[in-house]
Every structure is written in C-alpha cells, then in structure tokens.
Automatic annotation (TrEMBL):
YqaJ viral recombinase domain boundaries: 15-147
Name used for this protein in its record: YqaJ viral recombinase family protein
Any one GO MF annotation of this record: hydrolase activity
Pfam families: YqaJ
Presence of the UniProt keyword Hydrolase in the record: yes
UniProt keywords, alphabetically: Hydrolase
Organism: Candidatus Alectryocaccomicrobium excrementavium
UniProt KW Isomerase keyword: no
Lineage: superkingdom: Bacteria
Length: 315
C-alpha cells in the first residue's frame, strides 16, 4: 500500500486540505448518486474549494470518539486483531484515489470500517442490510489498497446491542465500475472545472445558495438552452397538480364517509381526523399596535427567490 502522508498528530484543517487532493471513501456513494446527504455537486464544490469546510458537528465528534470502542468490540466479537493505519493511503496508479481507513486487520489482507448510527436509523442491519454509503466506501478502500476484504462494524447508538459485523469481499467488476465513475468525475468535473448537474437534493440547494451569495443585482444572463429544461419542468408541474388533485379527492371521499367520526379503520389503514388547535402570531396587528416591539423581535433574512415566467404570458 502506498501512502500520501502520515496523519499522526496532523491538525484537522491540514487533513481536510489533503482530502481535497483526491477522492476519498466517503465521496464514493455521493459520486454514484447514492448518498442522501451528499451530492456529486457537493463533492465537486468541496474538491474545488468553493465551499467552506463542513463544521465539526456533534455527530462527527461522536463518530470519531466511538471509533476506538467499535474497533475494540469488533476484535472482541471476532477474535481478530486490528491496528491503526495513521496514514492517508493512495492508489499506486491513480494518485487521486485516496483512503483514510479506520483500521487494518492484523494477519489478513483486510481492513475495518467502524460506523455509528443514530437511534432513528431504519436500516435492517439485523436482516443483513448494508447502506450503499457504507458499502461503496468499503469498495473504494478495496480499490485503493488492493486488499481482499473489508469488514464493516456498525454500532446503533442508544439500542443496547452489540455492533453488527459484515464482511465485504473484493468484487473486481464493481471495483472497475466504481473506479471508472470516479475517474470520469475527477477528470471531467474536478480537474476540468465543470460542475456536475444537480440531482434535486438538499445538498445541491445548499451548494447553490452558498455559491450565489455574491451575486450581481439586476444582472441578466442569456441561457437559450434553459428553455428545454423549463418546458419539462412546466409539464412536470402540471402532472403534479393533477396528482395533487387526485390525492385531495381521495382524502375528501374518506372524509365524506367518516362524517363526524374522528377515526376510521380499514383492513390495512387507519385514519385520524381530529381538531387541532394552532396558535399563530398576528404580525400585522402587532406591527400596527406595537411597532417598537415588532421591530425589536423581528429578524430580517435575505434569500434569492427563484421565479419562472413565460415570456409569452408577459407579451
């Protein structure tokens, strides 16, 4: 295995800077479009330095702190010995493929990835399910290191159960597919400075908001090719309105049958239709009667509003 740098004693800021020199295991599923919290555009923006480093959240902190515990429990459950790597590993032929591995397994051509998941996680680990984000991270590590297998130990926090342990075998077909996708992403997007198209995720919206903070007011740009996208969007919106109307009609049919009852039961579904009391602040009345109080407790937030108008309608 080839190393890019030692991480022993390395500051987090320096580590994050080195990660931008290539694609890491946590980027793999996002590049494939399989990470619900990270998109290809978000990876691109990070590698190009267009967005700030992600804040060190409590979730990330606990993940790092529990890593040693999960590794110890893995060793206890399996009887295997593990050791820290303390290096950023690098693919021998593709230097942009990087790996920050949690542990290497002593006496085997294998590594270990340690994960913690929150109490609200719905993955059926008991039934053998492995989330795509975890699976492709391990497959990326296998590609970088050339090892034969990667173990995955997942600790569900707050559930008082032992870590779930999985063995992910090396799969050359999937490694070739992943490597090709990552190489195309690195070459065609990151190095070329061409952002990948958004996929409609919250991560994409966060990136676009960040990139547009210093926008030119009253500036107009010509984008003739956007018409095809907006034509499609208009058609999809029409379909959505039709679907929303069908959904609303179904709700109304059930309500009609329920009459004054607050609950209804079928063979597969239950419906609750109860009165809910909602308290809303009358901001207009407050502003009129107590303008000083209104100003004192009003926060002003600025955002860019995206509005589409048909040119034919304006004419």
């Amino acid at each position: 295995m080839q190393a890019l740098a030692s991480t022993a004693g390395m500051e987090r800021a320096a580590w994050l800077k080195l990660r931008r020199q290539g694609i890491g295991g946590s980027d793999a599923a996002a590049i494939l479009g399989l990470n619900p919290y990270k998109s290809p555009l978000a990876v691109y923006a990070d590698k190009r330095g267009l967005t700030d480093d992600a804040p060190d959240t409590e979730t990330l902190r606990q993940g790092r702190d529990f890593e040693a515990y999960v590794a110890d429990r893995f060793a206890e459950e399996t009887g295997k010995r593990v050791r820290r790597c303390n290096q950023i590993l690098q693919h021998p032929d593709r230097p942009w493929m990087l790996a920050n591995v949690d542990r290497l397994v002593v006496g085997e051509r294998a590594g270990l990835e340690c994960k913690c998941v929150g109490i609200g996680n719905r993955v059926d680990f008991e039934g053998g399910a492995v989330p795509p984000t975890f699976y492709w991270q391990c497959m990326h590590y296998l590609a970088v290191t050339g090892l034969d297998r990667w173990y995955l130990a997942v600790l569900p926090l707050g559930r008082w159960v032992a870590p779930y342990i999985f063995e992910i075998a090396r799969d050359e077909t999937q490694i070739d597919e992943l490597t090709a996708r990552e190489e195309a992403f690195w070459t065609d997007h990151v190095l070329a400075g061409v952002p990948p198209l958004p996929i409609g995720s919250e991560a994409d919206e966060a990136v676009l908001t960040r990139l547009s903070e210093q926008h030119g007011q009253d500036e107009t740009v010509a984008i003739p090719e956007m018409d095809a996208d907006l034509d499609l969007m208009a058609a999809l919106q029409a379909d959505r309105r039709a679907l929303d109307a069908q959904i609303e009609a179904i709700e109304q049919r059930v309500k009609l049958r329920m009459g004054s009852a607050e609950r209804a039961s079928g063979n597969r579904w239950r419906v609750d239709w109860k009165t809910v009391e909602t308290h809303r602040l009358d901001s207009k009345r407050l502003q009129a009667q107590l303008p000083d109080v209104y100003r004192q407790y009003t926060n002003i937030a600025k955002s860019r509003r995206f509005r589409v108008t048909s040119i034919r309608e304006k004419e």
